[in-house]
Specification:
By secondary structure, the chain is α+β, with helices and mostly antiparallel strands. Helix content is 26%, strand content 35%. It has seven helices and 21 strands. The strands form four sheets. Strands 3-12-15-14-13-16 form a six-stranded antiparallel beta barrel. Strands 4-11-9-6 form a four-stranded antiparallel beta sheet, with no helix packed on it. Helix 3 packs antiparallel against helix 4 and helix 6 runs antiparallel to helix 7. The longest helix is centred in the first third of the chain and has 26 residues. The two termini are 65 Å apart. About 12% of the residues have low confidence.
């Protein structure tokens, strides 16, 4: 009997303990909640409302909306490739790059025509690219008109010398015939030789008006040529043009007389220096570009028409505060840079930059000062982490989400 009673009493004690344990598990330990953990809008609970801390100059009040300062340890920085650069006072040099093509200087190009008609008897220029000097013969032609003009000059000259013209009108005829030959580009020494010998020449020599290179040859032996035929194109290539195209937004940074540097892939180590001599007054509607002409000296003849090259025009605009272009995240609404607050701590900053890019840097107008360090690589990952951190912080302010936010914050801290 005593044994049975003891077993019954022990069973009652165990049952009570189980009930108490289940009750505490379901309804809590019965301890009163702290005011910070009690919801403020419970019916009948006139609890003092929780007040948020007043942000200071170093807290989120100075941060862009949706961003937060974050801590990233050195190991993580190495894994994601974080690098930093400085905000510095540097020269502001606008560099304009374009591709150009070499063209002959049009003011040094001569199109060689005949001023009469006839048949080509002999060519002294055999191929394109041949060098000629001013006054050298290029071809000879037989022209009946030229032969008749010589005979007319000799006839008038004989009458004038005979003394039969008492009124002197025949001298006027002689001068007119002489002038006609001169207008056909007959040299004065040849006219003098014709006057001395009294024998008209059969052939008319066409001579080069300038020294240069024959770019085009369109005459051949036996051809009948007229006044309209373009027989030769001769160019003086001691000075050439580089024709390049720049975009419309680059126009304010280019002016006539500015120096320009030209390089060619075949000789990239050698730079040719010239100057801007012309800017096309019309913008091409399709490409929104403007043609720019650069004059280059070519005394050694290494620059040939048709060669492509790289053109660089630099425009100095003083000095200013600049930042590496890779440090700026352009969201469309604003420009963000991550400033290094301390070792492993980064703060997002809204920066205002100039629309002009200076090589690999932007001019900073607002948001940063000289000497500040900013993230230049890995900043997109830091940007994502900053946004996540700000999102977790905003959830903590929602009713009933304090505990969840604390849990997420603890997990995030454990991961870091």
């Amino acid at each position: 009997m005593p044994t049975n009673k003891m077993r019954t009493l022990l069973g009652i004690v165990v049952g009570v303990a189980v009930v108490v344990g289940v009750t505490r598990f379901v309804y809590g330990d019965g301890q009163p909640a702290s005011p910070a953990e009690m919801p403020n809008d419970m019916p009948g609970m006139d609890m003092p409302k929780k007040t948020k801390p007043v942000p200071t100059a170093t807290t989120s009040a100075a941060l862009p909306p949706g961003y937060a300062e974050i801590n990233v340890n050195q190991d993580v920085q190495q894994r994601i490739g974080v690098t930093v650069g400085k905000v510095e006072q540097t020269p502001l040099t606008m560099t304009i790059r374009a591709v150009g093509i070499v063209r002959p200087d049009e003011t040094r190009v001569a199109h060689v025509h005949l001023k009469t008609e006839g048949w080509v008897e002999k060519l002294f220029v055999a191929y394109n690219g041949q060098k000629v000097r001013a006054g050298e013969p290029m071809l000879s032609i037989y022209s009946p008109t030229f032969f008749a003009a010589q005979r007319e000059f000799l006839s008038a000259l004989r009458v004038a010398k005979s003394g039969l013209d008492s009124e002197g009108d025949q001298q006027t005829v002689v001068d007119t015939a002489r002038r006609r030959l001169e207008l056909w580009d007959i040299p004065k020494d040849e006219i003098g030789k014709l006057e001395q010998t009294g024998k008209p020449g059969k052939s008319l020599l066409l001579r080069s008006p300038i020294s240069g290179t024959v770019l085009q040859k369109q005459a051949f032996a036996g051809q009948y040529v007229t006044l309209q035929d373009d027989l030769f194109v001769v160019a003086d290539l001691s000075t050439v043009w580089m024709q390049a195209k720049i975009f419309q937004y680059e126009l304010p940074h280019v002016a006539i007389g500015m120096p320009a540097t030209v390089s060619f892939p075949s000789s990239s180590q050698r730079l040719h220096t010239g100057k801007v001599v012309f800017i096309d007054p019309v913008v091409d509607e399709t490409s929104r570009s403007v043609q720019v002409r650069i004059e280059l000296p070519n005394s050694n003849g290494t620059l040939l028409p048709g060669m492509f090259g790289d053109v660089v025009i630099s425009h100095g605009m003083g000095s200013g505060l600049t930042i590496p272009t890779s440090a700026v995240i352009r969201t469309g609404e604003r420009d963000i840079a991550f400033r290094v607050v301390s070792a492993g701590r980064f703060a997002p900053v809204v920066v205002k930059i100039s629309p002009t890019r200076f090589a690999d840097r932007f001019e900073v107008l607002e948001g940063l000062k000289a000497g500040d360090e900013v993230v230049t690589s890995g900043n997109f990952l830091i940007d994502s982490e900053s946004r996540l951190e700000a999102g977790a912080g905003s959830m903590a302010d929602m009713p009933g989400m304090a505990g969840a936010a604390k849990t997420e914050g603890a997990k995030a801290s454990e991961k870091k």
